[in-house]
UniProtKB/TrEMBL annotation:
Ranges for domain CR-type: 137-219
Tree of life domain: Eukaryota
Signal peptide: 1-20
Keywords: Chaperone, Metal-binding, Repeat, Signal, Zinc, Zinc-finger
Protein name, entry field: Uncharacterized protein
ZnF CR-type span: 137-219
Annotated organism of origin: Metschnikowia pulcherrima
């Protein structure tokens, strides 16, 4: 039989649960905050409340709240659902007594709730590649600093590696006070000396990923279940976004499956012809451009070299095209003007 006091405590607790956590308030960002602002604030709070760096007993709870809030705002669909319904899963919030008691007793033994852990946030990592990497492909080995379940205590946070049910509330989360006469026996649970009781550590995880020839710029590669680990959640995904280093492109510009390049000619070459250019491609192939004597080239003219663009992501043996436009150096141009061209 559940006592009246327990029911009242349950009702008060359920009122708080029904109110829910506002991910914007948890992260301290405005409702119109962009992805960059949210991610920056998330990382700052992650460092601030990480149990390895913050001994405050409430830091662990705040750490979990921050992770859950980021998981909502970092997912466009969940964020939209929360903005519309107040629920990341798209269900309008209800404040009835049945809902409140259902939330309170959910997951606690003896009350018919289903136990389960919520899914943790996805982790986003940008990996910078050269245009040559996108062209010929790359077998990439890299490391990422991630949160991992503490191996010493198996995520329990305790020195003996076991999760302990609270002796006072028997895991219900609500304490019923009783008086006992005679000697009092008190038990102590020592925290794990490796993770300081947090159940998790920061470590570098090593991965190997193959970037296929023709992979699109900003392609997202998902490693399922490889997100941050935590005893209180199921790991999310590790999302790898492949960006391009614009400074190492050998003078090429990529637009979809095609490559673009600018070749500079002197006024004499443009007017009289009789020149040859050899372009070294990323796969060591050489493309030859030339004009015979008497063949003029106008400023802005574009040559199309078929089949020498980027490999197609759908078929690496097929390529887009190479577009070469010409700029002519006017007679009497200074060295600086020539360099700019």
């Amino acid at each position: 039989m559940i006592s009246v006091r327990l029911i009242l405590l349950a009702w008060l607790f359920a009122c708080l649960v029904a109110a829910g956590l506002d991910p914007y308030e948890v992260l301290g960002v405005a409702r119109d905050a962009d992805e960059k602002t949210i991610k920056s604030q998330y990382r700052q709070l992650l460092k601030q409340y990480h149990p390895d760096k913050n001994p405050d007993p409430e830091a662990h709870e705040r750490f979990i709240e921050v992770g859950e809030a980021y998981g909502i705002l970092n997912d466009p669909k969940k964020r939209e659902n929360f903005d519309r319904f107040g629920d990341p899963e798209g269900q309008p919030q209800h404040n009835g007594m049945g809902d409140m008691f259902g939330q309170f007793f959910h997951g606690h033994p003896g009350f018919g709730g289903q136990q389960g852990r919520r899914r943790g946030p996805d982790t986003q990592v940008a990996i910078e590649l050269t245009l040559q990497d996108f062209y010929v492909g790359k077998d990439l080995d890299f490391g990422v600093e991630m949160l991992n379940i503490c191996e010493s205590c198996d995520g329990s946070g305790s020195a003996d590696g076991k999760r302990h049910t609270c002796l006072k509330c028997r895991g219900l989360g609500v304490q019923t006070t009783t008086r006992q006469f005679g000697p009092m026996i008190q038990q102590f649970q020592l925290p794990c000396d490796k993770c300081q009781g947090s159940g998790e550590t920061i470590a570098n995880r090593q991965y190997n990923v193959f970037i296929a020839p023709g992979t699109p710029r900003n392609h997202m590669h998902v490693l399922e279940g490889e997100g941050d680990q935590n005893p209180d959640w199921v790991p999310g995904n590790l999302n790898l976004r492949f960006t391009e280093n614009p400074r190492e492109n050998w003078g090429f510009r990529r637009v979809g499956d095609n490559l673009y390049r600018t070749e500079v000619l002197t006024a004499q070459e443009a007017a009289q012809g009789g020149w040859l250019r050899k372009i070294h491609m990323f796969d060591d192939e050489i493309v030859t451009l030339k004009r015979e004597k008497g063949q003029a080239v106008m400023q802005g003219h574009v040559d199309i070299v078929a089949g020498h663009g980027m490999p197609l992501a759908s078929d690496h043996d097929e390529h887009g095209h190479l577009f070469v436009d010409y700029k002519v150096i006017p007679v009497g141009s200074s060295s600086r003007e020539k360099d700019e061209l």
